[in-house]
Each structure stands twice: as structure tokens, then as C-alpha cells.
Amino acid sequence: MNRTKIATAARWIRDAEHILVFCGSGLSAESGVPTFRGEDGLYQHSKLLKFAHIEALHETPDAALEWFQQVIDMLDELRPNAGHFALARICQSRPSTIITQNVDRLLEQAILQSPNESSAPPARVWHLHGSLYRAKCVDCAAPLKKMPEDLVTARCPRCAGRIRPDVVLFGEALPEDAYFQAQGVAHVADLVLLLGTSGIVNPAALLPGLARSHGAKLIEVNPNPTELSAIAHLTLRGPTGKILPAIEKLVH
Ligand code: OAD
Questions:
Q1: Cα 173 to ligand 1 centroid, rounded to whole Å
Q2: Range of 88's domain?
Q3: Residues 58 and 160 both lie in one domain
Q4: pTM
Q5: CA-nearest residue, atom 35 of ligand 1
């Protein structure tokens, strides 16, 4: 680990007025969640390609929802890692907005378990690609107040339609309001943390460049070079589970 770079990252975090955290699946990798494009990434799993598609929800809803339920049940067994906890502590203590492409809730769990020593409300996580822990109606799109126990048997209380997880599927666009809000944060942030994302998927991956064009500094934490490395002012090569705790120790 490069101590000078860690110290620089900690100083930039201390001096920042508003941090935009931009996360990808690498942040959850050390908890056991596969990334999308790694060697054993999710894109190697044929069921993901088959069922995480809007057409599958309409054509084979039972099979698709059963698969989603299995994914949720698998995620329920996983726990936040040291990177989630360090990030939670960093964001609890200063103005920050966390924009994640991840559909798990590991970061929220870490935030809930981390003491909030400032008077600010707990850091909020915006799920740009949706969340497996929110549900809505396939037919009328009404959000459900509570996640159902079983997606296969659940029905919409308004129209009796099937219930799906509120995630962006293949064949669907990003919700416009979520991206619009994220652009607003990119305009005001003076520091961006790029954590565990390949930066390949647009429009999400356009946000760091937008923030940079408005004057923000960019720090990337990732074991590998990415599409965003060229625009980062500081790159820390290594897993977020090791690098973020090292930075966090020097921030306070
Ligand atoms: P990718 O699979 O494209 O990239 C994962 C990144 O995590 C890579 O850059 C890895 O080097 C890095 N990585 C792996 N292990 C890590 C670790 N321990 N610590 C830090 N980084 C690590 O996944 P995403 O960038 O999340 O979209 O993919 C973006 C979007 O592509 C996803 O949200 C999904 C997919 O299509 C939708 O579902 C709409």
C-alpha cells in the first residue's frame, strides 16, 4: 500500500466540502457478491442474462421471480465488509452523497451499524440501478411499502399485478429522476471517490467526468485500471476492503 497516496486521499477527504461517492460491485466483492465482468463475474451466469431481462418478467414471470428470490435469499446471508464500514464512517462524519450502482443493501447495513457522531442525519445511499430490497408492481409500477416475503406469490394491493424487485433490468432505461438528481450532486461535489467500478456503463459512468468538469478532484480505489482511471487525480490500487480502512484511520 502506498502510504503517501493514502495520506493524500485522507487529506483531500478532510478538506472536502461535499463528497460524491460513486460505487460499483467491487465494493461488495469482499463480502462475497460477484462483480459483473470479473473472471467468475455475473455475466458468466446464464441465469442472470436470461432472467434479469424485462421480457423474462412478462414471458416467464414465475421462473424469473423465483430466480430473483433466490438471489435475494443468497444476499441475505452476506455481511458488509471492512470497506463498507470504513466508507460508512467517512460519510457519517461529513457532507456526502453516496451514489451506488449496486443493488444490494450491504452499505446501508454498515451505515446503520456505524455510530453517527455528527449531528447530521445518517448518510443516504442512492441506488442508481435500483435495489433488490425495494419492490414494485409489474403492471401499475406502484411501489410496495414493505418488501414481500416471497416475490413469486406476492400481488399488488392496488391492481393484483405481479410484484418485481425495483432494479433496472436489461431492456430498461435508468429512471430519469434518479439520474437527474445524481447530476445535481455532480455539480456541487468537490471530491469524488470512485470505488470498485469498471466505469463502463453509461449514463452512470458519466457522473465522475461531469463532477470533474465542475472542478471536483477524483480519487479511484480499485485493484485494476478502469475506464475512469485516466480522469482520476489519484489512483489507489488495491481492494476497497484494505484501502478504505487505511484512509479512514487518517481522516479522523
Ligand atoms: P464491473 O464488474 O464492471 O466492475 C467491477 C470492478 O470492481 C472492476 O473494476 C474490478 O477491478 C473491481 N474490483 C474487484 N474486486 C474489488 C475489490 N475487492 N475492491 C475494489 N474493487 C474491486 O461492475 P460495475 O462497475 O459495478 O448495471 O458494473 C456497472 C454496472 O454494469 C452494474 O451496475 C450493472 C452492470 O451492467 C446494471 O445492472 C444496470
A1: 19
A2: 1-32+80-129+174-252
A3: yes
A4: 0.95
A5: 36
